[in-house]
Automatic annotation (TrEMBL), chain A:
Keywords assigned by UniProt, alphabetized: ATP-binding, Nucleotide-binding, Transferase, Ubl conjugation pathway
Domain UBC core: 26-170
Annotated family: Belongs to the ubiquitin-conjugating enzyme family.
Annotated protein name in UniProt: E2 NEDD8-conjugating enzyme
SUPFAM superfamilies: UBC-like
Residues annotated as catalytic: C108 (glycyl thioester intermediate)
Ranges of Polar residues composition bias in the record: 16-25
Region entry Disordered, spans: 1-25
InterPro entries assigned to the protein according to its UniProt record, in alphabetical order: Ub_conjugating_enzyme (IPR050113), UBC (IPR000608), UBQ-conjugating_AS (IPR023313), UBQ-conjugating_enzyme/RWD (IPR016135)
Automatic annotation (TrEMBL), chain B:
Organism: Polypedilum vanderplanki (Sleeping chironomid midge)
Function: Catalytic subunit of the dimeric E1 enzyme, which activates NEDD8.
GO cellular component, one term: nucleus
Organism phylogeny: Eukaryota, Metazoa, Ecdysozoa, Arthropoda, Hexapoda
Alphabetical list of Pfam families matching this protein: E2_bind (PF08825), ThiF (PF00899)
Family: Belongs to the ubiquitin-activating E1 family. UBA3 subfamily.
E.C. no: 6.2.1.64
CDD domains recorded: Uba3_RUB
Protein name: NEDD8-activating enzyme E1 catalytic subunit
Domain E2 binding stretches: 347-435
Catalytic activity of the protein: ATP + [NEDD8 protein] + [E1 NEDD8-activating enzyme]-L-cysteine = AMP + diphosphate + [E1 NEDD8-activating enzyme]-S-[NEDD8 protein]-yl-L-cysteine
Keyword DNA-binding attached: no
SUPFAM superfamilies in the record: Activating enzymes of the ubiquitin-like proteins
Length: 182, 442
């Protein structure tokens, strides 16, 4: 039991100026840790437009194998004040022909929504995203057309991915060129 | 109210405060000073002027607390009037805090309730420090965590690292949902705080994005689809979705219904749409009354020391009969909010010591022995990254800080730094103590 202290003194208003603001938030404590210990595979780089703002940044993934080899995909990370109790909001800014990423950039990755746990880190998400490019999953489609093609005709899917990354129409959707070389 | 009545007005409190009793705490001395303290010195902050807030304000004012501040960012809606009894139909659209304050001040003469029609985040430490006790009736976990973090940041340490008890502002937190409610007493850093037991809150429901997009089975899936995907795509009102705007809700309802029809899903209703968009919690006035009364009693007990405070978590449920239970929520030693005790570093030459010198110190000092510390802090309310070597884009932009002195970096005496390093599973907090400083130390 906490010993009660006597409260019976006048509270000082606006105490002397040497009291420092210490607004360390759980999110800031955790993101500092996460970012400092980012352990990225060769294929990933980060870009912090404002180095003072660790809560908003871009993650660039350039897969070096699989269907998406040679592509360059930019993801926008927004870490909210409730991190790590809520996952960051991650959107793909590059239009990509992918069964698990829709044309608005929404990403279907379980740990970004229903399976998020506070023990997971920014690194876990990067691995998850990396995995999506290596193993696109037709079972959990967000872009149903792409998923159908992947399921029924892998060669056509591969062809479509390559074509899209060079900048082309697939069906009636235009995909911007997103090759790593430029 | 006639003057002569006033002398007898507080007799029921005098019977408790001016006599000793079997349950007094050690800190209690029977005296008329205590009532005087409640009337004239003690300052209480009530956060939220909604269902719990209205009850709390009434309870506290009737218990002799005369200096009360109330803060609420909301305005009064028609649906509040059944239980938020300080409000009338004519008040719809007005500030809850202002209307509640005006009502109490008029109804209970001598009480001075000061309203704040804004978010809790709009005020800083100098505002919160003026209160003896904070009592909250909130409907949001984010807001609870924010005030929790604020009160923790106000806790000062003595030279020897122990907590300066006069800097601890107790927080009483109440919450209700339908027929269930809870109340808890938090002494920031001394016992379990909001973040210590975050797992006690019900998890947020979220559905897999692919289910929402392709294989919806529930009416909720259809609503979520419209909310997450269709709204951004069609942006019908050229603004963010607002669960309070009936036009927005109707639009979502209509689109969700279209989607539900395609997938043969039944059970969609306007109310369900409102529920999913706003996460509406049903409110029962009697539960609010019980929980507010418990909270107000705790405020009274702590303010007067006439009885030991609740230790520390009270649960109430009257769905089927009445069930109450009390337990001691345990402090989580890994809590990011309250268990990060700042470690002191004395600096005797802040105008010549550079950031590089500080990093060298962190790497070589036996107590720290770090490898590649990343350091952030907060200056004038803004986050600032001082240095981080592990991330290329940040390293390049912060490298120039290394040769600057701590003064040049605008770090001041008492400054807190967040330091992350591979040698520690969590970030640590370091407090800089400038020993050459002419500013008086606390």
């Amino acid at each position: 039991m906490i010993k009660l202290f006597s409260l019976k003194q006048q509270k000082k208003e606006g105490e002397s100026g040497n009291q420092q603001k210490s607004t360390r938030t759980a999110a800031q404590l955790r993101i500092t840790k996460d970012i400092n210990e980012l352990n990225l595979p060769r294929t990933c780089t980060t870009n912090f437009p404002d180095p003072n703002d660790l809560l908003n940044f871009k993650m660039i993934i350039c897969p070096d194998e699989g269907y998406y080899r040679g592509g360059r995909f930019v993801f926008n990370f927004k870490v909210g004040p409730n991190y790590p109790h809520e996952p960051p909001k991650v959107k793909c800014e590059t239009k990509v022909y992918h069964p698990n990423i829709d044309l608005e950039g929404n990403v279907c990755l379980n740990i970004l929504r229903e399976d998020w746990k506070p023990v997971l880190t920014i690194n876990s998400i990067v691995y998850g995203l990396q995995y999506l490019f290596l193993e696109p999953n037709a079972e959990d489609p967000l872009n149903k057309e792409a998923a159908d093609v992947l399921q029924n005709n892998r060669r056509l899917f591969e062809h479509n991915v390559t074509k899209a990354m060079r900048g082309a129409y697939i069906g009636d959707v235009y995909f911007d060129r997103c090759l790593n070389s430029n | 109210m006639v003057e002569t009545d006033l002398s007898k007005k507080w007799n029921y409190l005098r019977k408790i405060l001016e006599r000793s009793g079997p349950f007094d705490t050690e800190a209690f001395t029977p005296s008329s000073d205590t009532l005087d303290f409640l009337h004239n010195t003690c300052k209480i902050l009530v956060i939220g002027a909604g269902g719990l807030g209205c009850e709390l304000l009434k309870d506290l004012a009737m218990m002799g607390f005369k200096n009360i501040d109330v803060i609420d960012m909301d305005t009064i809606e028609l649906s509040n009037l059944n239980r938020q009894f300080l409000f009338r139909r004519k008040d719809i659209g007005k500030s809850k805090a202002e209307t509640a304050a005006e009502f109490i001040n008029k109804r209970i003469p001598g009480t001075k309730v000061t309203p704040h029609f804004c978010k809790i985040q709009d005020y800083d430490e100098s505002f919160y420090r003026q209160f003896h006790i904070v009592v909250s009736g909130l409907d949001s976990i984010v807001a609870r965590r924010w005030i929790n973090g604020m009160l923790i940041s106000l806790v000062r340490l003595e030279e020897d690292g122990t907590v300066d008890q006069s800097s601890v502002i107790p927080m009483i937190d109440g919450g209700t949902e339908g027929f269930k409610g809870n109340a808890r007493v938090i002494f920031p850093t001394l016992n379990a705080c909001i973040d210590c037991n975050l797992d006690l809150f019900p998890p947020q429901i979220s559905y897999p994005l692919c289910t929402i997009a392709n294989t919806p089975r529930l009416p909720e899936h259809c609503i979520e689809y419209v909310k997450i995907i269709q709204w951004d795509k069609e942006n019908p009102f050229k603004c963010a979705l607002d669960g309070d705007d009936p036009e927005h809700v109707s639009w979502v309802y209509e689109k969700a219904q279209e989607r539900a029809n395609i997938y043969n899903i039944t059970g969609l209703s306007y109310r369900l749409v409102q529920g999913v968009l706003k996460n509406i919690i049903p409110a029962v006035s009697s539960t609010n009354a019980v929980i507010a009364a418990v909270c107000a009693t705790e405020v009274f007990k702590i303010a007067t020391s006439c009885y030991e405070a609740l230790n520390n978590y009270f649960v109430f449920n009257d769905i089927d009969g009445i069930y109450t239970y009390k337990f001691e929520a345990e402090k989580n030693p890994k809590c990011l909010a309250c268990s990060t005790v700042p470690r002191m570093i004395s600096i005797n030459n802040p105008s010549s010591m550079t950031l590089q010198d500080l990093i060298d110190y962190l790497c070589t000092n036996v107590e720290f022995q770090m490898k590649s510390p990343g350091i952030t802090t907060m200056i004038n309310g803004k986050n600032k990254t001082l240095y981080m070597s592990t991330v290329k884009s940040i390293e390049e932009q912060t490298r120039s800080n290394l040769t600057l002195s701590l003064h040049e970096l605008n770090l001041s005496d008492g400054q807190e730094l967040i330091i992350a390093d591979a040698t520690n599973p969590n970030s640590i907090v370091v407090k800089l103590k400038f020993t050459d400083n002419e500013v008086e130390m606390y």
